[in-house]
Amino acid sequence: MKINVFLSPVSIDELYFTGKTTVVIDVLRASTTIVNALENGAKEVVPVATVEFAVKVSGGMFGGLTLLGGERNTKKVEGFALGNSPIEYNPEAVEGKTIVFYTTNGSKAIVKAKFSENLFVCSYNNISAVAKKLVELGKDIEVLCAGRNNAFALEDACCAGKLITEIAALKENIELTDSARAMQALHKSFGKSIFKMLKESEHGKLLIENGFEADVKFCSKLNSTDAVPSFMGNTLKLMPLIPAQTINEE
Ligand code: MLT
User: Fold this and answer.
1) pLDDT tens digits, one per residue of 51-72
2) C-alpha angle 46/43/23, rounded to 5°?
3) Domain range for residue 155?
């Protein structure tokens, strides 16, 4: 099993992902929000790359059960029902709903990887469950960090490194590209206090300045859920749970 990490989607053509097994990470906050929307009973999350497309899709496809969610410059998009705070996506708000979801970086990264054979969404909240799922599949892995504004984001890099470390604990002889090795080193340096690393990251500081410190705290929670969002037919839904004993069977 080989693992590669991209630090941002900017330089990759969408066709690169055809047939690949891909994990998208946008810790602050899109991947954390998606994981928690589905954990809290949303029927599905439909990631989209533009606000215009979000409005178009929500109009016709899913009737009254559709909610528009997401952000621009950290704030809820005008006319949307929900922003991009994982805390907003509680059972009362999302149960049974289709969420059409636009964010500045995260939803776009998922759309970019849409041709993947397997596509999962990872945050600190569900990282062990994602690692188990990937080991169960046993395929080479592309980790796609959403980054920020087409550039590197420390929190996504550290989460990628933690995911690789979790996979390496479950499976021997994994091969890492240079970028994957570098992400592991970042996780070792910064991952001792995830909350501190998030708070001190550029994106974390911006969120705190805009009143979202509770979100940053929420995004730092490790393994609070086993929910593994998987992209199927243009929507993200939950993967079934994996019984632990099946993972080590060759
Ligand atoms: C994004 O996709 O860019 C983020 O989730 C932004 C945010 O923190 O709202």
Assistant:
1) 999 988 877 565 568 999 999 9
2) 50
3) 2-233
